[in-house]
Specification:
465 residues; mainly beta; four-stranded antiparallel sheet; disordered N terminus
Length: 465
């Protein structure tokens, strides 16, 4: 017989029953405990488990004193707490409290231990002002932000104050700068009052005295601005190079413009931009342009040859062409060169006869225009064995002619006829009789291109029963 385990809830009142009851726990079952009110579970397990009459598992959980309180001088687990002081970062006179098995959540302390707020300074730093921070107290577990004063921009760093009990665990690290183009006391350092002697290099103006102390005017109240000096784009961009969107003269600070190769020239390598930073061209074009080659058009000879040239005095048109072109000049690869008379391609001649058993498909005997083709095919009753079917003309030369061969379609002797006593293939048929099962006197017949009826004098009709 299996006996239940006998147990009582442990006397540690920092945890209480969840579904356990003191007394018997049946074999093979478990029950649970939990931290008492006012305690939170740190670690451990929460179960009693019974195997026959043995508790093979008992709770190991521990429960803690609330944050901010010290019990007997330390933050140890206890049922009765007589703190001498609040924990570091907290303030109050908590007095005696008890949390025995369901004690009040706040332990019934006479006075709470409140977290001590942090102190945010009145001055946040050079050229730094409040975003949502206020000087003085910052509550435990909260943050507030600062930012650069008007007229300053953030360089680097963080912008937050963050409080944990009475300690600022995060403070701002941002830095803020004098506006671009101005020198303060001769250098571009951070300062609240600026007495520039000159504008920064690349800028022009007489700025005078200005002040930007934590919220100063965005432009510092300078008497005269320091304006960026524009760059100068040259009037001539380079050999065979013209403007794309550039214009000679001023190019504003921080902008770019482009050039390109002139008409009749193509870019070989390089870049196409002028880019200005204050008064300095930090980028200038490096492109090179090569004149487009004046290719002599097909069909023309220049001085007797089809060479590249700018001026062409042909003596004749090229072979395969006809005309009297005269003198012409190529201005930037002009397409037609202005020849007095064109050199027209001489057409090819397609023959009247295409070959044995070959007929036109879309070809006609005579002229075939330059750069075109036409087709032939096997005559009726003939089929193509191999080869090509096209005539193709390039100027006056047929660069492709048909190579097809055509074989006559076989003349099959119709069913019911015998040719010379057998049903063999033949072009001429002199049957002596009709085939068995047929009757008639067919006589002599000739197969012209697989003609279906052969022209027999009399048909061979099928006999009927």
């Amino acid at each position: 017989m299996l006996y239940p385990a006998l147990f009582q809830l442990h006397s540690a009142p920092t945890f209480v029953a969840d579904n356990c009851t003191a007394g018997n726990l049946a074999d093979g079952t478990s029950c649970l405990v939990k931290c008492a009110a006012g305690f939170s579970q740190d670690t451990g397990t929460t179960a009693y488990t019974c195997s026959s009459d043995t508790l093979i598992e008992t709770p190991t959980l521990t429960c803690t004193v609330p944050a901010g309180y010290l019990c007997d001088g330390v933050g140890i687990d206890t049922d009765t707490c007589t703190p001498t002081s609040c924990a570091p970062g907290y303030t109050g006179t908590p007095g005696l409290a008890s949390c025995a098995n369901g004690g009040d959540v706040d332990w019934g302390f006479a006075s709470p231990c409140d977290a001590i707020p942090c102190t945010v300074p009145a001055a946040f730093g050079t050229n730094i002002v409040a975003d949502n921070c206020t000087a003085g107290n910052l509550a435990d577990g909260t943050s507030c932000l600062v930012k650069c004063a008007a007229g300053f921009s953030q360089d680097t760093g963080t912008t937050a104050y963050t409080c944990s009990s009475d300690t600022l665990i995060e403070t701002p690290t941002l830095t803020c700068t004098v506006p671009a183009g101005y020198l303060c006391d001769g250098v571009g350092i951070d300062t609240d009052t600026c007495t520039p002697t000159t504008c920064a290099p690349g800028y022009t103006g007489t700025p005078g005295l200005a002040s930007c102390a934590n919220g100063g005017d965005v432009d510092w109240g300078f008497a005269s601005p320091c304006d960026a000096i524009p760059c100068t784009v040259p009037a001539a961009f380079g050999t065979n190079i013209v403007a794309d969107n550039c214009t000679a003269g001023n190019l504003a600070d921080g902008t770019s413009c482009l050039v390109k190769c002139a008409a009749g020239f193509s870019q070989d390598t390089g870049t196409t931009a002028y880019t200005c930073s204050s008064d300095t061209l930090i980028e200038t074009p490096t492109l090179t342009c090569t004149g487009d080659v004046c290719k002599v058009p097909a069909g023309y000879l220049c001085d007797g040859a089809g060479i590249d040239t700018d001026t062409c005095t042909p003596t004749t048109c090229a072979p395969g062409y006809t005309g009297t072109p005269g003198v012409a000049t190529c201005a930037n690869a002009d397409a037609d060169w202005g020849f007095a008379s064109p050199c027209d391609a001489i057409p090819c001649t397609v023959p009247a006869a295409f070959g044995t058993n070959i007929v036109a498909d879309n070809c006609t005997a005579g002229n075939l225009a330059d750069g075109t083709s036409c087709l032939v095919k096997c005559a009726a009753g003939f089929s193509q064995d191999t080869g090509t079917t096209a005539y193709t003309c390039s100027s006056d030369t047929l660069i492709e002619t048909p190579t097809l061969t055509c074989t006559g379609d076989v003349c099959k002797v119709p069913a019911g006829y015998l040719c010379d006593g057998a049903g063999i293939d033949t072009d001429t048929c002199t049957p002596t009789t009709c085939a068995p099962g047929y009757t008639g006197t067919p006589g002599v017949a000739t197969c012209a291109n697989a003609d279906a009826d052969w022209g027999f004098a009399s048909p061979c009709d099928g006999e009927t029963d």
